[in-house]
Amino acid sequence: MMNCCGLITVQKEPVPLQSIEVELEVRDHVATVVSTLKYQNKEDKPVEAVFVFPLPGDAAVCHFSAVIGQKEIVAEVKEKQEAREEYDDALSSGQQAFLLEESEQSPDIFSMKVGGLAPGESASIRLEYVTELAVQADDGLRFCLPAVLNPRYQPQGSEGASVQVFSVPASLVPYTLCFCGRLFSPRPICKVESSCSLEPLQYLNTDQTQATVKLAAGHKFDRDVELVIYYKDAHQPTAVVEAGQTSAETGTLMGDPVVMVSLYPEFPQSVMSSVASCGEFVFLLDRSGSMGPSVNSKERHQTRISSARDTLLLLLKSLPMGCYFNIYSFGSSFEHIFPQSVEYSQKTMKQALKKVEEMEANLGGTEILKPLKHIYSQHCIPNQPRQLFVFTDGAVGNTKEILDVVKKNSGSHRCFSFGIGQGASSALINGLAKEGGGHAQFIRGTDRMQPKVMQSLRFALQPAVEDISVTWGLPKGVSVTVLSPPITSIFQGHRSLIYGQLTGQATEGSVTVKYSLAGRPSQNQLHFSLKPAEDTGLTVHRLAARTLIRSLEMEDRELRGRQDGGIKEKVMQLSVQSGVSSCFTAFIAVNKADGKVIQGPLVRRNVPTAGEYLSQNKLKQIFSVENKKNDNSVFFPKTNMVISASSLDVIGCKEATAPKQPPRDPLLQLVSLQKASGCWILDPDLAAALGKTSEEVTSEVWATILALIWLHGFKMDAKEEWELLAMKAASWLRAQNGRNLIHKFYLFTPQAVSRNFWMPIKAN
């Protein structure tokens, strides 16, 4: 008799996926990932296993194969409809077949079908992809193995079919994950941080340029596996030339050498220390129901929406006088605080903060396209560059439609995006920043939203880089075809990647990026060897192919209905030639060799991914009459899954009292009292926040000085969060002829900012 405790299907039958093993190899800033998925059919009839799962949105999937017994069947890349028909025909004739395809709506969702597993039979599926690692604001390189896939909201009227996601609470995922990685760098590896528990970093050589990292035993599918890798003297400009494939035709992308150039522009300190005093800042906040859960399991009281409210407080207090701003929020519908952007002042800031305090995650689904279109329909304000900040958990199904709209309007703004929570769509968050010429950040696990958002605000306040051009210095007889889209934005510490297809032979070349910064011409140049590197395989070629494929796919969507399908043909040809997936192609493998015919109809089994923790509101919906079953198990209509009564305790489905709200963070309490001009005023609340009496705070100048000393003395660990508003306060003091007071009390000296100096400060 079958044990029905834990995750079961509606028919109380098992899930055939048993385990996932992931091997990561990182070379400098490029990662190669090999995943092995082990299936076993424990039923007495043949099954078809369907697994919808997430991958990084910019991954180049380049290999798919299956091992049945001792035989390996390697998949081919074919036109998607052709691959589907071949898969169906194979199953109809009793053959085993395997299909892997990318979602047409979002490139970070894939569907794998394992068809024709006979009773008792096992299969190992191998999936390989390559991707570049994103550069963090703190110079770390971020790798993320997505493990959480949340249902995606598909607005009515969106193009294409929605992706059906089968997800369950993390504690009920029925398969295991084993993860290990090898790191190789030309510079020493300083450390590796993670939101997951890791075994100690093991160095493989004395100069610490090679190391291994492993996931600790007992990993739960409640979070994505995220690594942040730190190198010594990180982010030096590099260029890697990779030889072409010997079997490929010369003159094609795979047959010719390809160069990958990584540039890290450095701006003068005088520019970096300056802050723009103009701009139109538009904040777009997700208020869908999925923004209601806690930010992480350790701080249940801090929900995503409450953290977003605190972040908006810091943002509004840090804006420069003279700018314009507005705040939009969205769910199934959208709202805005002002009909159009207004000038930043004490009055408008106060109005906005009052509205922000009332914001809850109560606007329904995640429909971001309509508010974006409305924002873009608003006329830009002369001499006020538009900066758009988007906060969302990324649970949307129409990713490509959204990115197309952002790219269409990229000339009128910069877009800074923030993915909140586990399972935030990397395709959406990275795509918004890429197409909008901005910067992307992810807030996961124990991450605080505020420092990451303030880092992006500093990027937004940097002078815009204009007139960007790239020139190549190559010897006679050597030419380059650039495969990357034009560089549209440059930030301090932000990597710019360029891929180029080379023809001809020589020993050395160079590439120069020229641009205008704060009205002054600047440039960065890199000289590099044209000799192909060893042991890179075809990694650079595949990344270059992926880059070109994504550009052509977007061009095809822009010209849909106005061209004859030539671009689609180019994409399919490049995808087949390079072995890299696209939205028009799929991997297909059919086991034709052994001649066995699988008897009987196939039974479909949907393999679930981990979803997020269920909120109490969701639980109330679950425990409705139509969902509650006689045996106290619960049926999830969207996932077609049943969770037995004995498993409800594991996922926290017992009714619980709401956690007691802790007192407000003293930093936020102090920040909330600052005026738009940058000063603090005489106020009993301010005295209380500083731990002083009203008699000790006797003027606005003194109030502001004491507030700044308190920040430096007690909140240096959160300096990234308050640094901009402190700069504004210091500017206000200087405008009040307060420079002498600043020097008199050593405001910015070590003595003044120490905790010991705080107590003797008096206002008399």
Automatic annotation (TrEMBL):
<dbReference type="InterPro" id="IPR013694">
    <property type="entry name" value="VIT"/>
</dbReference>
<dbReference type="InterPro" id="IPR002035">
    <property type="entry name" value="VWF_A"/>
</dbReference>
<dbReference type="Pfam" id="PF08487">
    <property type="entry name" value="VIT"/>
</dbReference>
<dbReference type="Pfam" id="PF13768">
    <property type="entry name" value="VWA_3"/>
</dbReference>
<dbReference type="InterPro" id="IPR036465">
    <property type="entry name" value="vWFA_dom_sf"/>
</dbReference>
<feature type="domain" description="VIT">
    <location>
        <begin position="1"/>
        <end position="131"/>
    </location>
</feature>
<protein>
    <recommendedName>
        <fullName>VIT domain-containing protein</fullName>
    </recommendedName>
</protein>
<feature type="domain" description="VWFA">
    <location>
        <begin position="280"/>
        <end position="457"/>
    </location>
</feature>
